Amino acid sequence: GLLERDNQMSFRGDLAETWSTPDPLTYVFHVRRGVRFHDGRALTSADVKATFDFIRNPANKSPKQGALRMVTSIEAPDDTTVIFHLSQPYASFCVNLIPSAIGIIPANAGADFSRHPIGSGPFHFVQQTQDEEVIVERNPEFFRDTPQIKRVRFRVVPDGVVRALELRKGSADLEMSSLSPDIIPVLVRQPDLAVSERTGTNLSYLGFNLEDPALSHREIRQALALATDREALIRYLLDGQAKLAAGVLPPDHWAAEANLAQYPYDPARAERVLEAAGFPRKQGGVRLRLTLKCSTEEQARLIGAALQEQWRGAGIELELRPLELATLFSDVAKGNFQITYQRWVGANTDPDFFEYAFSSKRFPPDGANRGHYRNARIDKLTDQIRVEMNQEKRKALCSEVQKILADDLPYLSMWFNDVVSVHRRSLGTLDLPSTGNYNFLTMLHPNHD
């Protein structure tokens, strides 16, 4: 990508050595000299322009076209300069320039490019077998430090138990956040296996449908938060492999607000809030009946069952309805739910997320405000966040948004799942990134290849 992000989600140069924004509608990037594609060709601004022009061309039906809708034109006045012109200010534009969003490919890439991809990264493509494996080898011409590992084989192993067995018998060297928490302590008892972990950015949350007569009351949502023992869920169901979330942005994020309303587990206070909101205990001690929709994944069902037990103490009868993912996503997008347990992967790492998930202009299919949350102040603030180019001013706007969301609770942010890897001890300590990608492979110094 032209840029990359650190663990605080601040931008730094990748293929671009420097960049500037002379005005809010213009981004100028200066590409590093001496970078070569895996086939030996020099990477220039013409390749950058061609990559983005291909995505912007409607005829190519790129799923990333919408992300570049504000780009009106791209210039490459010389081999190392690329200029993007936008139709309106868009402070999150740079998110579209990181490797996980858009990588740069050669200008004259052929029709078979998807089967024989060429990039400029630390590893070059060797071969792939669909649904089985992808093999890459180190790129000796990489513009940064050459990886120590000669060859990496990514194997597709759908079953978690089989993945654990492969590690145990030595036919796999590492996995990334793909094992159930209870199996990890068993594996690391083996002398040649170790575990590396760090706080991650993927957010698990409860989403509320604010069109629902009961859940439209903010007090009910706050009572549910107070009736939820998230620390116990992390300790017993996640084996401690998560960190409590106060909001949707990861705590290390440059725009994260630390001073937010908290909802520690307090079932007695939850009962008082429900009583004051007009939901007394009735026959059988039940105040309220609600339904939670989640995936059929074992961990999601266990969390749902634990919530049933916790909320029953406050007089809330919770029906659990596990669904196949496609059905779950369809129901939630259509507003056919009361409460849903889901996870955000990647999207919640940029301030643009506030508009996408909480603006009243972004109900599906135009966004992810699936609970139909409406707040005029949030709409105004997210409009400002979209165009504010000054990071300190943008951070202040984000802080106000986070404080409002913490009070209103359209989501109950549960936790950020840790990035966890079980691996061969001989690989040393892994410097895992918070987003859970494989960039750390370039820095590994194993005792053996």
Which spans of ≥5 residues are poorly predicted at pLDDT below 50? none
Using the coordinates shown, work out and report the CATH topology of the largest domain: Dipeptide-binding Protein, domain 3
**Fraction of residues in H or I helices:** 25-40%
Strands, count: 17
Shape: globular
Gross CATH architecture of the largest domain: Roll
How is the biggest beta sheet arranged?
6 strands, mixed
Number of helices: 11
Structural class of the secondary structure composition?
alpha+beta
The SSE string, one letter per element, is EEEEHEEEEEHHEEHHEHEHEHEHHHEE
- Name of the CATH homologous superfamily of the largest domain: Dipeptide-binding Protein, Domain 3
Fraction of residues in β-strands? 15-25%
Q: How many domains make up the coordinates?
A: 3
CATH class of the largest domain: Alpha Beta
Assembly state: single chain
Query: Strand order across the biggest sheet?
Result: 12-16-11-15-13-14
Average pLDDT, rounded to a whole number, is 94
Protein architecture, described:
Helix 4 runs antiparallel to helix 6, helix 9 packs antiparallel against helix 10 and helix 10 runs antiparallel to helix 11. 34% of the residues are buried. The mean pLDDT is 94. The chain has a 6-stranded mixed sheet with strand order 12-16-11-15-13-14. The chain contains 11 helices and 17 strands. The protein has 449 residues and is an alpha+beta fold. It has 3 domains: 95 residues, Alpha-Beta Complex (Dipeptide-binding Protein, domain 1); 104 residues, Periplasmic binding protein-like II (D-Maltodextrin-Binding Protein, domain 2, 3-Layer(aba) Sandwich), CATH 3.40.190.10; 215 residues, Roll (Dipeptide-binding Protein, domain 3), CATH 3.10.105.
